Amino acid sequence: MNAKMKKSEEENFEAVRKLFPLTADESGITYLNSASTGPLCVPVKQALDKYYQAAQYLDRNADHDAFADLEKIRTLGAGMIGAHHEEVGFGFNTGFGLNLAAFGLPLERGDEILLSDIEFPSNVYPWLALRERGITVKFIPSSNRFFSIENFKKAIGVRSKVLSLSFVQFFNGYKNDLEEIGSICRDNNLYFVVDGIQGCGVEPLDVHRCEMDIFSSGAQKWLLSPLGTGIFYVRKELQNKLRIPFASWLAVDWKLDFSDLFHYDRPRFDSARRFELGTYPYAHVHAMAAALTLMDSIGVKNINDHNHQLIDVLVEYLESHNGFEINSSLVNRNRSSILSFSCKKVKDLYQELMRSKVICAFRENAVRISVHLFNNTADIRRLIGVVDKFA
Asked: Domain 53-297 is of which CATH architecture?
């Protein structure tokens, strides 16, 4: 990349930064916690305001606009994960798609689910609920707090039917090699289910190349949308084989004609929409469409490069000062937009960062920082300024 192109990209990210009010100098905030909740940008707030303003009067039909934005979400969401439009639906959170997997896949008494022993709880409890149906859950031992592919291979048994795994581990940012893991699943006739919330939108992904069956991601973190939004993916060939764990009247096509509803024989959509639940939260639908439009205008690969470059600045500092331990992988295929590190007085460091309005998270006795498209080098320098007191 030449200097002119690099400067142009930096200017693009600085322009985007201005769309996030928390980045203004007067806020005093350096926000490095998108792995917890992403901040709302101006276009998202405008979409919410516009809907709530109109909702005070209800003098027009809001359905057409909302359904158009739902289509935009499905299309843009599919583009971010390498799926086909008809394989993606609107979900309310990560748990939506994971429950669809747990209660929709054709599992029988005596079957076995494989999970990592360091999964976020949302990817554990739906599977544990299957125990009352006689289905077993086996936890795969991690290695150095990372998912172990070797231990995964050893764990596969004759009754193993599903592996459900995080794209990126929430506490240390370890990005699993989903392409290799997906190949192992296919070779062993395992359904491959992925909790994608900590990588969706900021880490390049191709669900087909990774041979995934079901993928689910809330949108309130890296997708910069309000709480209660998300996307899910179901492989096209699997859609008609899934049991229907929950049913909605909007899983069929009324063609937006809600004046003639006594047709109980209409078939479900021949797409992932057959698993959606309505009525939809229109305000958040509009907001999510605005957020994905912004992110799509930049591109996942560009966001990924930007984020990793910022992480590199922090890594360079930490590696040049004694007393700090990096808990995240720095191997290219396993690194993400999350970095976890610790030191002797790590809890004091975290508390000092929060007092200084450098917003981050405390996970597994370590400071977890997560950078996004609105962050810049000055944010990392401000973080380092506080961290340096503990060097």
From this structure: 3-Layer(aba) Sandwich (3.40)
